[in-house]
Specification:
- By secondary structure, the chain is α/β, with parallel strands linked by helices.
- Helix 5 links the parallel strand 12 and strand 13.
- About 45% of the residues are buried.
């Protein structure tokens, strides 16, 4: 028997370094498994340029998982290497797969400056060079002195980078160069490809992870990840699930990318996120019949990782587009209780975001996740026939006892939808798990029921006979 999968993004941007995330996840593993979590997307575990205050996306050393005294700290923001490995083991012990966040596009915090000849790019059009060649001081040499060549003796230098962000200090008369603050990896360099493959094989071997979340794949040639994923899977002899972040609301562009990488990875359903966001901002003026239109969930459900929000869309982030609280139950019902897509629950919704005074939605999410685990199986029937009230049913299957459900969503006045749940439920009673409707309904002899939802709410009806 195979249960439905649920991924959880196990962090939010502003979470504090204490208590350490790795220890928290180790302690919470059994509880998360019980409510239906089957995989965890963990944040970048390697040393960032800001040390223990780095969320992991300004990468310094991919081989330092909280083991070496570098950038002013041994541990990372989330804990030590031992705590990381213990958390992975605890999660996997209770049946939760672990996906590691892979950030490969750039390096920061170089150990030495190199003198190189460079030409400046137009700030608006990065493909257009401006000005003449000049000699600059580039922060491009990474020797990792704190690690002392343990695990790898590879030294990154200017030849491994395709572009450099720089910061001119016109007030310092002693400066010989314009110094750089970040270096973009040259993915056409064969040495780079071979080193990153070596690192990935080492990482899989030392951590035992089950897959990758790939950061910012849009900025990396599709051919790189096509070949990288194929090679690492072949060398490690592991299937290694992979999901990429390609941030674009155009579902056609996501489809084109999947074609380019020969479908070696899934993608986050960014178009669906924006549909959910716009529906939440419309205050009832959104046509719910179209909420799945032009999404990966509809066009390529086998490669769609669906989500409501993440660390990029939460408040005060660059791509802020946070789905409003009133619509969160409806949005999560859409990704958790349908058969299409691989849903990902955001830690900031589950635990709350104190930085933004956003409260935990754990109680609501636990209900929906448990419903996905126990009830959301079998043939699906859609009733997307009203701009403010939509629904669907799942008939259940033989492998999951008493499975099957009916979902009704409203962003307006609410109402009742007559929907088919299956003749095998004829004469049975259904109850609203979400508590919006306080009465039971009886399924008729043809397998239909009249399922109610309150104003601006979601009701999830499941088989439950009234107590005698």
């Amino acid at each position: 028997m195979i249960d439905n999968g649920i991924m959880m993004q196990a962090f939010e941007w502003y979470m504090k370094s204490e208590p350490g995330l790795w220890t928290t996840l180790k302690n919470d593993a059994a509880k998360l498994s019980k409510v239906g979590v089957t995989s965890m997307w963990l944040p970048p575990a390697y040393k960032g340029v800001a040390g223990k205050d780095d969320s992991g996306y300004t990468v310094y050393d991919l081989y330092d998982l909280g083991e070496f005294d570098q950038k002013g700290t041994v541990r990372t923001k989330y804990g030590t290497k031992k705590e990381y490995l213990d958390a992975i083991a605890a999660l996997q012990k209770v049946g939760i797969n672990v996906y590691a966040d892979v950030v490969l596009s750039r390096r920061m915090g170089a150990d030495e400056v190199e003198e190189v000849s460079a030409k400046e790019f137009n700030e608006v059009n990065r493909y257009q060079m401006v000005g003449e060649n000049k000699t600059i001081g580039a922060n491009t040499k990474f020797t990792f002195p704190g690690r002392k060549n343990k695990y790898s003796d590879f030294v990154w230098n200017w030849s491994h980078f395709s572009g450099i962000n720089w910061n001119r200090d016109d007030n310092d008369q002693n400066n010989k160069f314009d110094y750089m603050i970040g270096s973009d990896i040259d993915f056409d360099n064969r040495e780079v490809f071979e080193e990153l493959v070596r690192w990935a094989i080492w990482y899989v071997d030392i951590t035992g992870i089950d897959g990758f979340r790939l950061d910012d794949v849009k900025s990396i040639p599709a051919s790189f990840y096509r070949d990288f994923l194929y090679t690492v899977r072949e060398k490690t002899e592991k299937e290694l699930f992979a999901v990429g972040q390609y941030w674009n609301g155009d579902v056609a562009k996501l489809g084109d990318y999947l074609d380019e990488i020969h479908s070696e990875a899934s993608l986050f359903d960014v178009p669906l996120h924006y549909n959910l966001y716009h529906a939440s901002k419309a205050g009832g003026a959104y046509d719910l019949r179209t909420i799945l239109d032009n999404t990966m969930m509809s066009s390529n459900p086998m490669k769609a990782v669906t989500f409501v929000d993440n660390h990029d869309t939460q408040p005060d982030q660059l791509m802020e587009s946070y789905v409003e609280d009133w619509f969160k139950p409806m949005a999560y019902a859409l990704i958790l209780l349908r058969r299409e897509g691989y849903p990902c629950v955001f830690y900031g919704d589950y635990k709350g975001i104190p930085h933004s005074k956003i409260k935990s939605k754990k109680q609501m999410l636990d209900k929906l996740m448990k419903l996905r685990k126990e009830k959301a199986y079998g043939e699906q029937h859609d009733y997307f026939d009203h701009p403010n009230c939509i629904g669907w049913t799942r008939e259940g299957d033989a492998d999951h006892k008493d499975s099957g459900l009916a979902v009704v969503i409203s962003d307006g006045e609410g109402g009742t939808k007559r929907m088919y749940v299956g003749k095998h439920f004829a004469g049975k009673h259904f109850s609203d798990v979400m508590g919006n409707a306080k009465y039971n309904i009886k399924i008729d002899e043809y397998g239909f029921g009249d399922f109610y939802v309150n104003r601006a709410a979601v009701s999830v009806w499941v088989h439950k006979e009234p107590s005698r």
